[in-house]
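Appendix C: a fully annotated inverse folding record. The material below is reproduced so that readers can follow the format used throughout the book. The structure is listed first as tokens, followed by the designed sequence.
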């Protein structure tokens, strides 16, 4: 029997239109490797059922003929079949509470789980990702939020013309429009109350690169963190200042006299404290693009904001594009994730409460948690292209072998096997404590 893979329909929300494999790559898998594809019908998928049928895929609800099922986002608990292999973003490796019932169900059903997030090279760099597209969509939505907020404050700027990512046809249209908005900034300048307009990026990985790609369409001047003060004292109103913060700018060793060491910070984050607050008074927008978990110091705390808002001086920082969208994470007051149809909330430091929208006293947080789905076509094409090289080896693997050690898979994929035949693999035993 020929190898057959399944593609599940995405149903997390009405914006989730992405696919793990495009029709073009489904055809390539059939021609080169004889791999058949079974795909569930969907009314919202960015590529039509017709496009898949034309390349020989079988469109049907039942994915039983497939030995491996590929998806993008989490899968409902009633979907899993006994002993089958599933490849998707499971959002379980940090012990995410909301996905533990799904993981338990997979364990009960003896399923194998391969998580895209853990397909990494020997240096731990992710190989299969949507990160750039999270950055692209996140920057657009944050600038839209900024424009709306300024309009509410009755400050007139070209940012008012910017739309949300979902209201543009594609990335080309976004960049063309932003070029036009940028020309207005360059010729007409920004109001004195916004000058200098400094946008800070925490982190420099794929997400940050995507966000910067959008900002770079504007007239920008990149500065180093150490140059912020001189820019504040002698600003231009015809450029946007961009500053990228690395770990050495964001934290310092808690031990007096100890020098910052990146590897030491990665291995012993508890020995460091945040110094990021020193930059906040100068920033107008902060893009949070870092990986964070509970061992790391926070970038911004509720306590800092409460103290700042109790002073008479108004904070320049209006919007945080929290692309990482960790609830109560690096940005402590990211109280919830948001969606494309309700993308922002305002955090009120004095009362420690939030309200949806961009009106009121406080800091606005954009925390849409599946930003790449706002650019579904380009995001799917890019992802499918990266994933394609791993598919034949996943399809050729024998997942019925009793001993996980004996399963033949490339190291990058084997490291990403979270569950094997319903049991956590050695690298992921720690998840037991969350179950």
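Designed amino acids, in order:
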């Amino acid at each position: 029997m020929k190898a057959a893979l399944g593609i599940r329909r995405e149903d997390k929300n009405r914006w989730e239109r992405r696919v793990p494999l495009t029709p073009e790559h489904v055809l390539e898998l059939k021609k080169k490797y004889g791999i058949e594809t079974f795909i569930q019908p969907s009314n919202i998928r960015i590529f039509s059922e017709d496009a898949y049928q034309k390349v020989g895929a079988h469109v049907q609800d039942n994915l039983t003929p497939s030995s491996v099922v590929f998806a993008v986002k989490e899968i409902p608990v009633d979907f899993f079949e006994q002993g089958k292999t599933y490849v998707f973003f499971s959002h379980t490796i940090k012990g995410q509470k909301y996905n533990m019932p799904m993981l338990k169900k997979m364990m009960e059903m003896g399923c194998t789980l391969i998580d895209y997030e853990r397909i990494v090279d020997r240096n731990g760099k992710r190989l299969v990702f949507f990160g750039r597209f999270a950055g692209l969509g996140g920057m657009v939505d944050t600038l839209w939020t900024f424009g709306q907020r300024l309009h509410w404050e009755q400050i007139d700027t070209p940012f008012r013309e910017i739309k949300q990512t979902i209201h543009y046809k594609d990335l080309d249209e976004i960049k063309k429009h932003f070029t036009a908005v940028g020309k207005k900034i360059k010729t007409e300048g920004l109001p004195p109350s916004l000058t200098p307009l400094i946008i800070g990026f925490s982190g420099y990985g794929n997400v940050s690169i995507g966000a910067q790609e959008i900002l770079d369409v504007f007239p920008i001047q990149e500065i180093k963190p150490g140059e912020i003060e001189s820019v504040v004292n002698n600003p231009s109103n015809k450029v946007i200042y961009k500053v990228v913060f690395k770990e050495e700018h964001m934290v310092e060793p808690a031990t007096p006299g100890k020098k910052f060491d990146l590897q030491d910070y990665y291995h012993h984050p508890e020995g460091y404290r945040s110094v990021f607050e020193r930059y906040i008074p100068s920033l107008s927008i902060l893009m949070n693009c870092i990986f964070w978990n509970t061992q790391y110091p926070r970038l911004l705390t509720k306590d800092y904001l409460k103290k700042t808002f109790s002073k008479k001086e108004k904070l320049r920082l209006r919007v945080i594009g929290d692309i990482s969208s960790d609830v109560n994470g690096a940005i402590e007051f990211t109280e919830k994730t948001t969606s494309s149809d309700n993308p922002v909330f305002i955090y009120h430091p004095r009362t420690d409460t939030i309200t949806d929208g961009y009106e009121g006293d406080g800091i606005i947080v954009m925390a849409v948690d599946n930003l790449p789905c706002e650019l579904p076509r380009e995001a799917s094409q890019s992802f499918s292209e990266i994933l394609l090289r791993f598919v034949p080896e996943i399809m050729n693997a024998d997942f019925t072998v009793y001993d996980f050690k004996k399963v033949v898979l490339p190291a990058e994929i084997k490291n990403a096997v979270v569950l094997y035949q319903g049991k956590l693999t050695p690298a992921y035993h720690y998840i037991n404590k969350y179950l």
